[in-house]
Design goal:
Number of helices: 14
Strand content: 25-35%
Helix content: 25-40%
Shape: globular
Bound molecules: ligand EPZ
Radius of gyration: 21 Å
Strand order of the largest sheet: 21-22-1-23
Number of strands: 23
């Protein structure tokens, strides 16, 4: 139950290095279940979600070693039932289904519970895996998928009411890698994390093509082997620090980023009057707060559109930007838990279905606030950087789920923060 004290008003500046991507690491760790051989994954961020995934792999019987950002997994001898006690703590455990079903022809995974960011069904995952021949049963709070004769390649469309599904695309891609025949996934998610998983699968000997486009083709193979892989940089961690720099910065440089992955975030910050410069190789960027910050409209969309995981941070930026800004979340229309807490700090925000209308105020005042989910807590930290006084951010475990040592990185940028262990 750690909390973070943020003594506001100190500008941030300097250089930090961005960690590996949480959302690429999770499905890649799950994909190690597809082979009996050793997989070595580097740049896995030390955050609670990857720790949960390591615990689930161990609970399934894998031999796992972890040392400073590198995880070695050997899943030679595994069961088909994921441990409920860990699975219930992390929605992303759902990406166990594809690899377990492909490898063991059966899997038992707890149905995910409720989520504060909104309704998160898994109907598209089930639709995709059933198209490959799996039979589904729901019993005792678990989803049980079985395919005694193995999976068969098929055409699968993964378009839902709110667009494609990221982990659904991952699940079907992993299952199809060991299926008999060819699978074509249409309306696939195009996120860089999906591409990183496809690269990992291909390093294991899979035949995946088209990742990063809405049409992915997977030619099933009989067996996959071990490999070594470096995870891509975390574009959402990078985006969060870019927004922090626009809010409270006097020149913040981020090393180990990917310019292409940050295109929509850079564009949004420039539209809001801030400066974003990448170096020639596009793997480092420097952000300066603009002289005349401007209100803007942000609409979240599947990649390459503006990410929903950066919606809250942008809302925090607009809270003290003169004029009226609008933020629309088309992927998780209820994902505005941070707004009530920002209002406790003096923000002027009006919410209506899937939209926040933000009227900029001169300044915020510090207050005790409650983190509700990963990205909402990042927004509270950003707002607190400029607020007058000391803001107390409670339930810090939310931010530790996806940001590696965020307090140490903020301290390295000169912010006046302290973690209080409880
Ligand atoms: C991934 O979640 C990310 N998580 C989320 O990041 C991110 O917000 C989300 O993609 C969207 O970009 C990881 O990668 C671990 P979806 P995922 O399935 O795959 C609906 C963070 O902050 N849907 O792409 O679970 C769903 O309700 C996290 O790091 C169905 O209707 O999200 C949503 O509206 C939070 N049926 C939309 O699709 C389904 O079967 C997109 O969800 C699946 C999804």
């Amino acid at each position: 139950m750690d909390k973070l004290l943020v003594h506001g008003g100190t500008p941030i500046h300097g250089t930090i290095t961005i960690s590996g991507s949480k959302n690429a690491s999770l499905p890649i760790l799950a994909a190690t279940l597809l082979t009996e051989e050793d997989c070595v994954i580097r740049r896995v961020p030390d955050v609670s979600d990857t720790n949960y995934m390591v615990q689930i792999l161990t609970g399934l019987g894998s031999d796992v070693e972890r040392f400073s950002g590198t995880v070695r997994v050997n899943a030679a001898d595994i069961t088909d039932t994921a441990p409920y006690d860990i699975v219930r703590r992390m929605r992303a455990s759902v990406c166990m289904m594809g690899p377990l079903l492909a490898r063991k022809h059966r899997c038992v995974v707890a149905l995910p519970g409720g989520c504060v960011i909104g309704d998160r069904p898994i109907d598209l995952h089930i639709r995709g895996l059933e198209a490959l021949g799996a039979k589904t049963e729901v019993a005792g709070g678990n989803v049980i998928l079985s395919a005694p004769g193995g999976l068969k390649g098929a055409n699968v469309d993964l378009c839902g009411d709110n667009g494609p599904t990221v982990l659904g695309t991952d699940n079907v891609m992993m299952a199809a890698a060991l299926a008999e025949g060819t699978t074509t996934i249409t309306s696939a998610a195009c996120e860089p994390e999906v591409v990183d998983l496809a690269d990992f699968l291909n390093s294991m000997g899979a035949k995946v093509s088209g990742a990063g486009t809405p049409v992915i083709t997977v030619e099933g193979v009989e067996k996959l082997h071990g490999c070594v892989h470096n995870v891509i940089p975390d574009r959402i961690e990078a985006g969060t620090f870019m927004a922090a720099a626009a809010l409270a910065g006097e020149g913040v440089t981020l090393r180990r980023v990917n310019e292409g992955h940050l295109a929509s975030i850079s564009q949004a910050l420039r539209k809001a009057g801030h400066q974003v410069h990448f170096n020639d190789t596009g793997d480092a960027c420097t952000v300066h707060r603009g002289e005349t910050p401007m209100p803007a409209e942000i609409v979240t969309e599947p990649y390459p559109g503006y990410p929903t995981d950066m919606q809250a941070q942008m809302t925090a930026l607009f809270v003290t930007t003169p004029g009226t800004s609008v933020v629309v979340d088309t992927i998780f229309p209820q994902r505005f838990m941070h707004c009530a807490e920002l209002k406790r700090m003096g923000a002027d925000i009006t919410l209506s279905e899937g939209k926040a209308i933000i009227t900029g105020v001169k300044s915020l005042s510090a207050a005790p606030v409650m983190a509700s989910d990963l990205r909402a807590s990042a927004a509270l930290v950003l707002a607190a950087l400029t607020a007058k006084g000391t803001t107390e951010i409670n339930r810090l475990y939310h931010i530790d789920r996806g940001y590696e040592h965020i307090d140490e990185k903020l301290l390295a940028l000169g912010a006046n923060v302290e973690r209080v262990r409880e």
